[in-house]
Amino acid sequence: MKTIGIRELQKNPSAITKWLEEREYTLITKRNKPIGIAIAFDDAIITKGLRTSLLLEAYQESLLSLGELAKALAMSKEEAMKFLSVMGIDVIDYDFHEDIATIKKIVQ
């Protein structure tokens, strides 16, 4: 997360534009106290709702576990897994090729 003071934002609004284009969350402060957060606009915010969209993004970035996501969405883990599947999000992040490489190293 980036941070920018309101004065800096007034002097250099392109900084926040750049961060938003890079999909960085930006904390906006006034006299070093948080006053807001800027997030990049995404169609998912409209279709899924802001809260759900943020939770799904956090899950995809491995900031939330499946259990934490389910709890935050007030769902069972099974319901959360079905929801992720419907949303086109991998429930399990598994790298088969990495495992094969590890097995080859062990066998040699």
Could you explain how this protein is built, in words?
It is a single chain. 56% of the residues lie in helices and 14% in strands. It is of the alpha+beta class. The protein folds into 2 domains: 2-38, 3-Layer(aba) Sandwich (YefM-like fold), CATH 3.40.1620; 43-108, no CATH class. A 3-stranded mixed β-sheet has the order 1-2-3. The N and C termini lie far apart (44 Å).
Brief characterization of the structure:
With 108 residues, the chain is α+β, with helices and mostly antiparallel strands.
Short key terms for the protein model shown above:
108 residues; alpha+beta; YefM-like fold; 2 domains; 3-stranded mixed β-sheet; extended
Instruction: Count the domains.
Output: 2
Shape: extended
Rg on CA atoms, Å: 19 Å
| Helix and strand sequence | EHHEEHHHHH
Secondary structure: elements and pairs:
Elements: E1 2-5, H1 6-11, H2 13-21, E2 26-30, E3 33-38, H3 43-48, H4 50-60, H5 66-72, H6 77-86, H7 96-107
Parallel strand pairs: 1-2
Antiparallel strand pairs: 2-3
Helix pairs in contact: 5-6
